[in-house]
Amino acid sequence: MRLEQTHWEVLKSDVLVIGGGFGGLWAALRAAENGASVTLVDKSFAGKSGHSYFAGGAMMVMLPEDDLQEYVHDIALGNEWIVDQNMVAAVFNGSYDRLKDLESFGFPFRKNGDEYIWTKARGTQNVKNLWPEHGTAADEVTVLRKVARSRNVNIVDHVYIYDLVKSDDGSVAGAVGIGVRKPNHYLFHAKGVIMATNSGGYRGHHLACELQGTGPFMAYDAGARIKNPEFHYINIRPAKHEIEGSGILPAIGARWTNAKGFHYMDKYDPVLKDRAPVLKIVVAAAKEAMQGHAPISIDVESMTPEEREKFRILQVSHGWMPILFEKCKREEGYDLLQDNIEWKPAYEANKLGLDADEKCRTALEGLFAAGMARPLGINSFTGWSIASCTWSGYTAGDNAGEYARNTKLKKIDFSGLIQSRAKFFQPLETENGVDPDKLVHDLQKILFPVDTLIIMSETKLQQALDQVLKLKAEKLPRLCGTDVRALIKIKETQTMMLSAEMTLMASMMRKETRENIFYREDYKEPDNQNWLKWIFADKGDDGHIHFSTEDIPFEKYPFQPDF
Amino acid sequence: MIRSIDKKVCVGCTICEMICPGDVIVMDAEEKASIKYPKDCWTCFSCELACPVKAVDVHPFRKPRPMAW
User: Fold this and answer.
1) What span, in angstroms and rounded, lies between the C-alpha atoms of B54 and B44?
2) Digit-coded pLDDT (tens) for A184-235
3) Cα-flanking dihedrals φ and ψ of residue A111, to 5°?
């Protein structure tokens, strides 16, 4: 049986949402609330997967008594000015209403009587984080899924979208996909399409293994523009397993330590020390390692029992951390809160996104972007991700719904669709080729070393780019597989290769350092004369990546950096 | 990484198959959960946490990958 000849399903709707995390689910439930027929498609089970399911649940909220200007200023500073301040204001302006929505959905936030219990968001002076009363983000997305279903959103799980579908006039008219478990073909035909697939990564983070960037990059292929290709979220984690709370441990008394037992953050940030922002911690650990002072660990041996108990209370997971702690003790003989273990930087996700306006519209007619698939700033403050994904999902759903009300279903460009399908299935024909997992491993060996994307420099970035281009020429065209699972991995691998090429080139363009978000060893200072800009990437007529920059429009924003 | 699913204990509820974000677990011919793609495991513990009869066992270490140093 040839895969091309299996069964086709055609689903029509006003709005198609691709991706079922915070961004996608909010988009779907809002569009449906206003009367749009909505299909949401997810490559896994929407609400049990993705970055969203494994998040802690902290959400930044501006309460009625809070000051918008203070909130916007905090976020602008934390992003070192490389952020759309009007978007930030929109996130906070909507945040209290979204809190009320969640409460009406049956998802309350922690209160002490009538007052919300909040913590100050890490890296800010004024911004409040609210926390779920029961459970974590896992429970929140479960609730959002139920609400979406109650509003008749048609949720299609376990279908992998491999391309957008266009109409004859070049606008986006839907998407094409393949069943992950059964090889059925799916054609989604919609008036408005919302890309909510997260931004991408290189499988560096175990709880976000699906972040390959296929959403933004299939839109890039269709003519959309990518913004912020040079930025990443790189965290620091135990070398052999995962943990969330690299920020919590230092906040309650643990200290970063090198092999000599020296608490080195005293040197790298005399003011904030171990509570410095994530990238500063990562760069400091990297520098210590490069000087031969690895292994790096968090010194927990000198914590008090009260401090350890605090961690147990503060650590937020849907249950996986207590099990992990217990198994490390039982299987490997160490207690994460009593015994010092080795930590290393771990690449988590890129911070690029599909360029979108304040209504979450991209420049491609019919295409909107929500969640991490659209740019949401670069600094991954605790609580910002859920707040901004919530805002963008709600806003995209609102606007895509309205767009759909005022437009008709467009005629599909079937020749384009057939080309997309042929391209997706082509690796079945390649013989004795390259295994996609092996090529991803090769790519990780280029990107993950400390002196590629953490301690950056022109020489190393160029070296890495040369190596990526070599893989692109020699191995990429030879990717092969024999089943749908392999074809999906191949599509993801192709995307990761393009993403790597794009980010290395863009990183070389930005010749400066902004400590919270971008570190270059060869340009150690911020360059406000030349680099208060955004970098964009779009596909040129020649098929190559075409870069451009735009000045950040400070004249439209409440705050300007001092020169 | 996911280590084992005890078929003697598994009751075939399919919750682990549904919840696995990486589609690693598949119901086999006897309608018991089986690990089809162990190398793709995320070490997220969703399966072990969700299993109502404690049939699933996950080792705490994730798959080795290239590191920063």
Assistant:
1) 16
2) 999 999 999 999 999 999 998 877 666 788 999 999 999 999 999 999 999 9
3) -135, 155
Residue with token string 């964009």: A536
For chain A, give the number of residues: 563
Domain boundaries, chain A: 3-58+85-109+133-231+349-415, 241-340, 425-532
What digits encode the pLDDT tens for the residues A409-422? 999 999 999 999 99
Chain A residues touching residue B42 (CB < 8 angstroms): 206-207, 209
CA distance B1 to B19: 16
Q: Does A49 touch chain B (CB under 8 A)?
A: yes
What's the CATH number for A241-340?
3.90.700.10
CB < 8 Å to A346, chain B: 68
User: For the complex shown, is ipTM > 0.90?
Assistant: yes
Q: What is the pTM of this model?
A: 0.96
Min Cα separation B43/chain A (Å): 7
User: Which tokens belong to A127?
Assistant: 């911004």
- Count of all residues that appear for chain B in the document: 69
User: Is A330 at the interface with chain B, CB within 8 A?
Assistant: no
Q: Which of A314, A309, A327, A333 is nearest to A242 (CA)?
A: A327
What is the spatial distance between Cα B2 and Cα B25, in angstroms, rounded to a whole number?
10
- Is B67 inside any structural domain? no
